[in-house]
Amino acid sequence: KKKYQLNDSDRLWVVIDRDRWKAKNLSLIASDTIKLGARLALSNPSFELWLYLHFAKWEEGRVSSSEIENSLRELLGFYNKSAPPISKLSGKVVDACLRAEQMDSNPSHRWPENPGSHVYKLVKDINILKGKQTL
Q: In the chain, which end has fewer C-beta atoms inside a 10 angstrom radius, N or C?
C-alpha cells in the first residue's frame, strides 16, 4: 500500500492459489490480508480452475491442480501455465463469474471449497467501482 501510495478509495486484492499453501499458512495469509484492509481472491485448487470456468462448470467434485491443467489441455488442445491462452478467454469472463458464483456453496468463507474460485468477487468489485451494478 505504501509503495504504490494507495489511498482509502483504492482497493487492494491478494490473488493466490490454494494448492501450494498448508491450511495454517493460508489462514495467516487470510488474516494478514484482512488486517491490511485488502481482499482475498483464492482459487482452490489453483488459478487454472478460474481459467477452466471460462468454458465450463467443473462437475466432477474435488480436483487437483494437475487434473485441472490436463482438462484445460483437452478443452483447448494445449495449455501452457507460463502463457495462458488470453485470446481464448476473451468475452467469457461473465460466464466464468456466473459459474464460480454458482459453485460457491459458502461465499462468506475466507476461501472456497475445492473446487472453487473467489476471483469472481474481484471481477464484481471492479464492476462496482466502474459504476456497473451487475456483471
A: N
